[in-house]
Amino acid sequence: MNPLRWTIKSTRRLADELRKQGYEVSATLVRRMLVVMKYSLQGNRKTREGSQHPDRDGQFRHISDRVKARKRRSEPAISVDTKKKEVLGNLKNPGKTYRPQGDPQKVKTHDFPDPELGKAVPYGVYDIHGNEAGVLVGISHDTAEFAVEAIRRWWKKLGRKRYGRAKRLLVTADSGGSNSSRSRLWKWNYRSGRMRRD
């Protein structure tokens, strides 16, 4: 495999490297050559999962069976996860808005987190049977307490109306971060009755 084929260098740097090897070339010529060779600028695409559990299909069949069982009993099954955290403040966002000519929205030069404003931490709770979701947005950290509170609020605002007589709740999660299966705080908060208060 040619190592240069897998580079992340700019066309200017590629041209510099080629000139060091004795070629007369510009960044523009390198760009044209890449197009002729059917190369193009591309962003990353998430497709690699890494190593999979040998019984991954069996795991998903088990989860599916559990969700169906909850539905037959009119009991809730939810999927929970933290969504992309966003830095708060007057920051540049992609896209454009209509404004008077020559009067763009002024934003900060750098997108560094503001220690006073922090980050928005959205935690989603999706009702699998009802195809309905709620999102709780925090402004500090993605903790186990926050995850359990999001579920509790989902139950209070949405879940109780639909599943008021339910005795059990099935929670599906990626088991990472705040809802990690290894997190004692997640398990303690969830099992200690915080969910039964309301």
Q: Explain this structure to me?
A:
This protein has 198 residues and is an alpha+beta fold. Helices cover 33% and strands 14% of the residues. The chain is built from five helices and five strands, in the order αααββββαβα. Strands 1, 2, 3, 4 and 5 form a five-stranded mixed β-sheet that branches. A hairpin with a 4-residue loop joins β3 (119-127) and β4. α1 (11-20) packs across α2. The radius of gyration is 25 Å and the shape is extended. Residues 1-5 and 194-198 have low confidence and may be disordered.
Number of beta-strand segments: 5
Shape: extended
Query: From the helix content, strand content and strand pairing, which structural class follows?
Result: alpha+beta
- How much is the average pLDDT? 79
Unreliable spans: 1-5, 194-198
Largest sheet: 5 strands, mixed
Number of helices: 5
Percent of residues in helices comes to 25-40%
**CA distance, first residue to last residue:** 62 Å
> How large is the share of residues in beta strands?
5-15%
Question: Roughly how many Å is the radius of gyration?
Answer: 25 Å
| Series of H and E elements | HHHEEEEHEH
Mind sketching the topology for me?
Layout: H1 11-20, H2 27-36, H3 56-72, E1 77-82, E2 86-87, E3 119-127, E4 132-138, H4 144-163, E5 170-173, H5 184-191
Parallel strand pairs: 1-5
Antiparallel strand pairs: 1-3, 2-3, 3-4
Helix pairs in contact: 1-2, 4-5
